Amino acid sequence: MKIRSLCVYCGSSPGSSPLYLQAAETLGREIAGRGMRLVYGGASVGLMGAVAKAVLAEGGKVTGVIPQALFDQEVAFDMLDDLVVVDSMHTRKAKMAELADGFIALPGGYGTFDEFFEILTWAQLGLHAKPCGLLNINQYYDHLLAFLDHSVKEMFVHQPHRDMIHASDDAGNLIAQMETYDKPPVRKTAWIHKLNQNQKQR
């Protein structure tokens, strides 16, 4: 699929290693180099600020989406060509989802996890057919990916839904994977219904 705008979820912290900032900057250059628009949380700090600045430095386009409360705290990036101020975190997530053709999570904390898994759940439910990826820098997401494999083994996650998550430590490779994305053949609701029917037949 053609990705024209890419939403990036990431930390407002730079993290403990310079590798994280370098990865954010590399991803920003990759997005701009491919002629994509960056959609992100609108902040000027941490990995969020780094990816946005890298896109802008390469002449790319950036749309930031930020809640009024954070805008009032002066953490917004005022050099963006497009900054959307919304009323809540919920509205922010919905607006970012609307504007993007795909989603990548760099390393981050609770907010990054929340945003990534919510958009992934929407895909699982068939609410959208956009690709989701983890930029696994410095093995940051290794344990999470292993846990998801464990969830498949324990039959709480269906393998086609696990396979919806693209992962790489290379930005270009990750985007290339996402551009070949094909939505899973089974929605969550159909899969759960089938499991329940199998349980009743035992």
Judging from the principal axes of the Cα atoms, what is the shape?
Answer: globular
Strand content: 15-25%
Task: List the quaternary state of the chains.
Answer: single chain
CATH topology: Rossmann fold
Task: Give unreliable regions as ranges.
Answer: none
- Largest sheet geometry: 7 strands, parallel
Mean pLDDT: 92
CATH first level: Alpha Beta
Count of discrete domains: 1
Number of strands: 7
Rg (CA only): 17 Å
Annotation field: number of helices: 9
Distance between the termini: 41 Å
N-to-C SSE series?
EHEHEHEHEHEHHEHH
Give the strand order of the largest sheet, numbering strands 1, 2, ... along the chain. 4-3-2-1-5-6-7
Helix content: 40-55%
The assigned CATH architecture is 3-Layer(aba) Sandwich
Q: What structural class do the secondary elements suggest?
A: alpha/beta
Give a written overview of the molecule.
Strand 2 (about 35-40), helix 2 (about 45-55) and strand 3 form a beta-alpha-beta unit. With about 200 residues, this protein is an alpha/beta fold. It is built from 9 helices and 7 strands. The mean pLDDT is about 90. The longest helix has 16 residues, at about 20-35. The chain has helices at about 20-35, 45-55, 70, 90-100, 110-125, 140-155, 160, 170-180, 190-200, and strands at about 5-10, 35-40, 60-65, 80-85, 100-105, 130-135, 165-170. It has a single domain (about 5-200), classed as Rossmann fold (3-Layer(aba) Sandwich), CATH 3.40.50.450.
Entry keywords:
Rossmann fold; 9 helices; globular; alpha/beta; 7-stranded parallel beta sheet; 7 strands; 202 residues
